[in-house]
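Please decode residue identities from the backbone states below.
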């Protein structure tokens, strides 16, 4: 089937971005809190010279993040809105991870999110007015998102699942699965069935 081609460039509309619905509706806090968080994130969370994971976690908690015990947050991490983040016990959040959570992100216990992985809950896709649409992300207990994965809004990564490096995850990944690719698809089981490990 031939792809439709407009008769001329004049037939292609341009969306006036100044009229697009703004993102402030997703903030969930007054502007002063959002701006103060931006400063604290830059100083204490994203800052590669700030080496203390405990300080990073303490600052996130001070702004409303629910973070369990034993969580390791490496340098250069970013969290858009800590008050929309919940992380279970004993998780590892790798260097350069960006949690762009305009909606809730919930991460179970014993989860690994490796270097440079990007989790985003918002998108303008398929909206002619460029309005922001947000959907939560859930990462089940024991899951492992390896380096430079991208996870989009509305996705649930199942308990114990493994997503291979560089994968793009636009839909759910089942428990115990190994998934890879763009878009990520199940290619096998992470654990032998019935092994419990």
């Amino acid at each position: 089937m031939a792809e439709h081609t407009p008769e001329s460039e004049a037939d292609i509309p341009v969306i006036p971005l100044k009229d697009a619905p703004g993102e402030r509706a997703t903030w969930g806090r007054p502007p002063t809190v959002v701006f103060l968080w931006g400063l604290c994130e830059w100083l204490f969370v994203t800052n590669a010279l700030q080496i203390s994971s405990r300080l990073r976690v303490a600052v996130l908690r001070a702004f409303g993040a629910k973070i369990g015990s034993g969580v390791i947050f490496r340098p250069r991490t970013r969290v858009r809105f800590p008050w929309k983040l919940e992380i279970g016990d004993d998780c590892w959040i790798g260097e350069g991870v960006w949690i762009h959570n305009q909606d809730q992100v919930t991460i179970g216990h014993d989860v690994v999110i490796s270097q440079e992985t990007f989790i985003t809950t918002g998108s303008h896709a398929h909206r002619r007015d460029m309005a922001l649409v947000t959907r939560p992300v859930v990462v089940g207990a024991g899951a492992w998102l390896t380096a430079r994965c991208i996870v989009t809004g509305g996705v649930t990564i199942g308990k114990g699942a493994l997503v291979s490096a560089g994968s793009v995850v636009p839909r759910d990944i089942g428990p115990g699965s190994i998934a890879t690719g763009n878009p990520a698809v199940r290619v096998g089981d992470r654990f032998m069935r019935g092994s419990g490990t």
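Observation: The chain has a mean pLDDT of 90.
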